[in-house]
Amino acid sequence: MTAAPGPVGRGEAIAFEGEGTALSFDAIACPPPPLRGIEPGAAVALHLADPVKLAWALAHLGGRAGRLVLVAADTAPALLAPLLAEAGADLLLTDRDGLPALPARALRWDGLAEPTGPALPPVGIETEWVLATSGTTGAPKLVQHGWASLTRTVRRGGAPQRWGQVYNLCRFAGLQVFVQSLLSRSTLVLPRLDRPLAEQVATLARGGVTALSATPTLWRKILMLPESASLPLRQVTLGGEIADGFILGALAERFPRARVVHIYASTEAGAAFSVKDGLPGFPAAYLDPGSPAGALLEVREGRLFVHNGGVRPGYLGGARFADERGFVDTGDMVERRGDRFHFLGRANGMINVGGNKLYPEEVENVLLAHPAIRFARVAAQRSPIMGQLVTAEVVPAAANAPDPAGGRELVKALRHHCQDRLEPWKVPALIRVVAALGPNAGGKLERRPAGRAA
Amino acid sequence: MNSQAAIVTTDPSIRNTILALYEEVVQGKDGASGAPLTDDTVLLESGLDSLGFAILVARLDEELGYDPFSLSDDPYYPQTFGEFVTFYESNRPS
User: Fold this and answer.
1) CATH number for the domain running over B16-90
2) Cβ contact B77–A354 (<8 Å)
3) A99-102 long-range CB contacts below 8 Å, 24 or more apart?
4) Which domain holds residue A393?
5) Residues A308, A176: one domain?
6) By the CB < 8 Å criterion, does B12 face chain A?
7) CA of A354: which chain B residue's CA is closest?
8) What is the model's pTM?
C-alpha cells in the first residue's frame, strides 16, 4: 500500500474501542457530522481530547484531507494560534472548550461518536500529515510526513491483534500504533490518557489487548503495577526512548509469549528501523545497503545519521534539518562493540529523565547561583527506573570548610535550593561534594553521560 | 539471622536502610507523607512516583554500594514494597 489509508476495511470487526464505545470497520465508514461535512482536500487541524473521536477523524480524513495537522489535546492554548498559522490549517476540528481566537474556522464535534448516514466512498488523496515535535524547549516545530514514512516499520499481514493505545495519537509514536492497528485490521483499544496509569492498564487488560507499544519509561511503570499481570500480550513494542537490556529482559520475562521489538524513530527522521532480537542497540549489519533496517543509516564520528525517503527534509516554514544527501543527524551517539552498535547518549549532552529532557547547563547555573558553590558539573547517571537521572558534582566556595558530616548539610541545602527553582526531574538526584572537578582529555569539563544509556 | 533457613531471610539492616532513605525521599517531595508502608503496599501507590523510586534506587546504590537492577541476572521490576526489599536482599553481592 503506497497511497493514503483509503478504504479502512469492511466488516463487523471492531476498529476502535473506547469507554462505552465500540466502532466496527463498517461503522467508521459512516462518519457523523461534522466529520462528514469536511470537503476532500481541506487542510484540517485536529484538536480532540476524546481518543475515539481522534482515531475516527484520522481514519476518515487520512486519504481525504489535503493536509492533516495533529495538535495534541494538552497543547497550551497560547501556542494554538501560531501553530495553526504555521501549519496552514483552514479548519480546526475540536471537542475542547474555552479556545482563544484562532486563525482557522472552528468546527465543533460535541455529539457522540456514533455512525451516521450511508458509507462515504474513499477519495484517495495523498494526505500530508503534519506533526508537532514535543518541543521541551521553546515552541513546538512542525514536521511533515507522507504515508510511506509513517508506515515504514508497520508489519504487514499476520493475524489481527488487539492493540492498546497508551501514546497520544497526535505524537509520532501514537500515529504509528494507529496505522499498524488499522492496516492489520486489528482492534485499537483507547483508554483515556487523563486517567491514572493503573486504571488505563486495567482498561487494556479488560479489553484483552494482545499488542502494546510504550516508551521504556512507561513500560517500567506498567511492570511495577500488579494490573500488568493480566495483560495477555503477544507483541511488546518499545519506542520513543532508547531501550536498555534490563527493560528488554524484564519484558521478555513477564510476557514470555510476546515478541519484544524496539523501534528507533523520531519526529524528524520518522520510523527508521526496528530491532527484533530482544537485545539493546542494533546489529551493525543495519548499516549495509539493502539491510532490513528500512531507512539508510550512517555513523559519522560516532553519531547516527538516518535517511528516510518519506520525510520532508525540513521543518514547515523553517530550517532544513537534513543534509544535502537527505540524511538527518539524530544527535544520538553510538559505539560499535563487535557486530552491534550501542547507544551512548545525546551528543549535545541532553539528559532524558523518563521522557523529560533537560540540558545540564540549566542545572549547573542554578547550582552556581548558590553562594556556597564555586564550581558545579551536572551529568546523567543511568537509572533502571527512569532511563537517566541528573547527578551533580560541586566544589564548595570555602575551600577548607567542609562540614564534618561529609558535606551532608551542604547537599541538603543545595537540594532545597534546586527544588525551589527547578522542575522535579531537573533536581539532581545525587549531589556529590568534591575538592575539584577533573577536566577531561580535551581540557573541557567532561559532559558526556556518566553511565551508558544502553 | 537463622542460618538454617534455606530461603532468603530478612536482613533488618537492609530493610532499615531502605525505610530510612524512603522516608528521606518522601520528605524531600513537598513533605507529602505516604500511607504507612507494609510489605503489600504497591510501590507506585505508596506516595512516591516513579521519579521518587528512581531517586531512592540511586541513593540506595550510594548507601549500600550496589544496585540490584544492574546486578541481577533475572531482570525484574518489583511491584510491592516487600518485593522491593527482597530484591535488594537476594541480590546483595556476597
Assistant:
1) 1.10.1200.10
2) no
3) A99/A47
4) 351-433
5) yes
6) no
7) B51
8) 0.83
